[in-house]
User: Fold this.
Amino acid sequence: MTTMVRWCYTLLLSLVSPVLLWGLYRPKTNKPPFGRRWKEHFGFTPKVDIRKSGIIWVHAVSVGEVLASKKLVENLAAQNPEKRILVTTTTSTGAEQVKNIGNGIIHRYMPIDFNWCVQGFINVIQPEKMLIIETELWPNTIHTVAKNHIPITLINGRLSEKSLSNYHKLRHLIYPAISHINLILTVHADDKVRFESLGGASEKVIVTGSIKYDVLLDEGIEVQGKRLKDTFGSGRQVLVAASTHQGEDEQVLEAYQQAKIEVPGLLLVIVPRHPERFDRVANLVRSKGLTLVRRSDSVENIDRHVDVYLGDTMGELLIMLSASDLVFMGGSLIGKKVGGHNFIEPALLKKYCLTGPSYFNFADLACQLIESNALSVVSNANELAIHIVNALAKPNQLTEKGLQGYGIVKRNQGALQKTLELVSTSPNIEMSS
Assistant:
């Protein structure tokens, strides 16, 4: 039965894969090209020149997962100097982030979820273990890796009620995949219960918390943030709208224009989530009659008449967050399809945050921050404008709320060490057939 279901799944994937691949490969502005490396998605993977004594394979699908796993990867490299750490991503933007890790970390593109693609990758790389960051449950991949007797650990495992319901509908496909995973490290106790309901053995599912909390900000971030704030002009208040999506930029700009009536010197720093949208957002800003400067212009002093500073570079969001007085976290004002973005870095920088109502990807932290008045929820552009004006009118309260958020994140840290210990010391658990 299980084999037949996987064959049906593979047939369906064969039919839809041209559409999926077109979405992955089609050129977009500011999106790094795959070039000749597209073959890696089909298992034609270059050999690793210097293998040392073994390879640990970490799969982080795209930018968010790579950033979440950065400290884990760095620690794995430090604790296993005799081994090579190889990180796979599906996207080219994720690949760019892997390059930034350094420390001899190797990157390859993740093979598509066909058995022959995954087997081709394994034949060349011969990894000794696989670590999956967050809930990437590809049935053929997990089956093929397990068949090659490579232990699999799922890290930062999360399952919402909605995902659980969907997985139950695909139980003949998902249950076998779950049974092949040796160790499932979950963020919350609720996640553990949900993974167990999908067939995960209780002893294999362990609550560790989220490694995303274990962020150690470079001391240079705040120095660079202060330098950037100085370029904005003395005494000017700064709102950073971080990781915004299409359909959200318009609302942020509308809120900014409303708020600026009450806060004339307000500067909006807007950082779109996806680099291919940088030019589109720049055009949108100009269409609203607002004056724009792009970070890539490298302007040393921003004129006070400039309304919007567009963060159109990669890997510098933290610097812009550090330069802010107030943060709006995007992916949260456009319905339920995104589910918000990470509040951890703003909190570690002691910044008070605003968010839209869709923050389910970070619901646990959001609830803690809301309860401590370190995060407020707005439903539309008008509410966002009101909160901006009210928050900036009380700088002392802004500071206090930022400190509250910082304390919450610090209390949640510790998952990274637990994860590293379990990955390095846990015995291999026999896989179900």
User: Anything to note?
Assistant: Residues 428-433 have pLDDT under 50 and may be disordered. The CA atoms of residues 100 and 315 lie 9 Å apart. The chain has two domains: 2-214+414-425, 219-412.
